[in-house]
Amino acid sequence: MISRLSDIIWPPRSLLSDVIVDRPGVIEPALWGELRFLNEPLCACCGFPLPDHAGPGDQCAACLSQKPAFDSARAALAYDDHARQLVLDLKRGGRRDGLPVFAHWMAAAAGEQLVRADFLAPTPMHWTRLAVRSFNQAAWLTAALARASGKPWKPGALTRVKRRKSQAGLSASERRRNVGGAIRASGTFKDKIVLVVDDVFTTGATLEACARALRKAGAAEVHAVTLARVVRSTDILS
Ligand SMILES: [Zn+2]
Fold first, then answer.
1. What residues does the ion ligand 1 have nearby, CB within 5 Å?
2. Residue 73's closest CA among 92, 60, 82, 86?
3. Residue of 98, 122, 114 lying closest to 197 (CA atoms)
4. 73 burial class (0-12, 13-18, 19+ CB within 10 angstroms)?
5. Which end of the chain is more exposed for a tag (fewer CB within 10 A), N or C?
């Protein structure tokens, strides 16, 4: 009733434009067609797109040369201009009407690893940052995915013990150093299968740190799912 009333006062807008849509959290067909969903063939480990001739179980060059601490990572969307808008509206704008549809996309991307997971855990935000922003978008995504899948989620399974510098403008190795040791698991998770949830996979450094912390706490497997993933076309061709 309340949502109907608010619709009359303020009709729902597309997640990607000012177009008025029939219900909150949807995207008009023209822009929907432009979203770049990530589909197989993908690196079995990090989810990076592979050439069409790749088979199941194949991995990208980066994972073959250095195996990540997580067992697998998947993302719903390539991080292009549309995905960036969805992420920034969520992260900076606190826009929540897309969460149910994002959860649906992330459930499809995580597939079997969501089904197998004992629980979901958001990547943590340091409390000082949380105090400024008042919400953690990774926790919102995790709660939405938990609701969509019926899986339990543990908001405090991972905590950030050091406030990190902003990751923007840092190289992959600088990001790893920046995040390394900053994330701790709270509790023991012996033999658990954990699915870590974040908004964007950039270099994977944050998810690496989460996976190392969860393994230290006894987790048997750590998988990850994000709404979007940075995919550079030069990396695909090489
Ligand atoms: Zn890979």
1. 43, 45-46, 48, 60, 63
2. 60
3. 122
4. buried
5. N
pTM exceeding the 0.85 threshold for the entire prediction: yes
Q: Among the residues of 92-204, which ranges form H helices?
A: 99-110, 112-116, 127-133, 137-149, 172-179
Tokens of 3: 């949502």
**Angle, alpha carbons 193-197-200 (nearest 5°):** 140
Q: What's at 230, amino acid-wise?
A: V
Cα–Cα distance measured from residue 205 to residue 172, given in angstroms and rounded to the nearest whole number: 7
CA of 58 to the centre of ligand 1 (A): 9
Q: Give me ligand 1 centre to Cα 178, in Å.
A: 21
- Over the stretch 171-226, which tens digit does the pLDDT of each residue have? 777 777 666 668 999 999 999 999 999 999 999 999 999 999 999 999 999 999 99
